[in-house]
Automatic annotation (TrEMBL):
Record protein name field: CGNR zinc finger domain-containing protein
Domain Zinc finger CGNR as annotated: residue spans: 112-151
Gene3D superfamilies, alphabetized: Jann2411-like domain
Pfam families cross-referenced by the UniProt entry: zf-CGNR (PF11706)
Amino acid sequence: MDTVALLNTVRADRSGVHDDLADVAPRWRALRDAARVLAAERTDDPRPVAEGHEGRVAQAVATLNATAALAPGWPTLVDGRVVWASAVAAEDRALADAAAEAVRFFASEVELRACLAPGCVLYFVKEHHRQAWCSVGCGNRERAARHYARHR
């Protein structure tokens, strides 16, 4: 089951698991922060939002690895298809699956870039040699900012 389907399952059926997701949210934030530190390191992000990431890379890798190890699973055969089973709560499985995807992503050779448009804090995978921003909206904001700077 992919991570999105698992998250939808968790949202739809919360019986027997955490009654309040408040204790899960900090772990998701820690995973997000670790991924942002690794993305900033990989892209040499010059933006102010990424300042100070150099000293936190080792901790980010440790957080990512520890989170990915939260929900060890095993394949099971159900009606002729493989389903991953685990002995942990669905929230932990979803968190561990997201961390595992991040591990695979940061180990890949994709060209990750920081979007340098004004006000944007996102990263994107460069899919075309001329792609410079994460979205059309960011490109438009960048061009508008250049225009206004020239005509002031």
